[in-house]
Amino acid sequence: MAELYRYHRPVTMRADAVSTSKGPGLPVSETAALSAAACMFRSLGDPARLAILRHLSLGEHKVVELTAHLGLAQSTVSAHLACLRDCGLVTSRPQGRASLWSLTHTTALLEALAAAERLLAATGDAVALCPTFGEAANL
């Protein structure tokens, strides 16, 4: 669990743990840290958002370019970009009347996605077949 948080050192995995240390003298609730991790995973939990992140790993793109590449509506792409921006994963800069979107933490994000791919390879089809979170659960 320590790998997920650069400054977080979990004391225990008990639900009643109240604090750990984050940086010099700043107490951090373990529950809050785990909740933040869950929020991050939820932000990555949509195939369209993952496709956007993967495409942005190639470089900056305008919304119109993302919609053409992904075959999604402009409003859908814009909504997903807003979510990813609010999570701190992407940023934009103006270019004329458009905006160019890019990843904010490219190396860390690509490392996390590579780790997810390794974990998926290790578990085989278990995640896809999971009755709670697998592909059939989304129907």
TrEMBL record:
PROSITE patterns listed in its UniProt record: HTH_ARSR_2 (PS50987)
SMART domains membership: HTH_ARSR (SM00418)
Entry's transmembrane regions: none
Keywords for this protein: DNA-binding, Transcription, Transcription regulation
Gene3D superfamilies from the UniProt entry: Winged helix-like DNA-binding domain superfamily/Winged helix DNA-binding domain
Superkingdom of the organism of origin: Bacteria
Occurrences of domain HTH arsR-type (ranges): 29-123
UniProt name for this protein: Metalloregulator ArsR/SmtB family transcription factor
Native organism: Blastococcus jejuensis
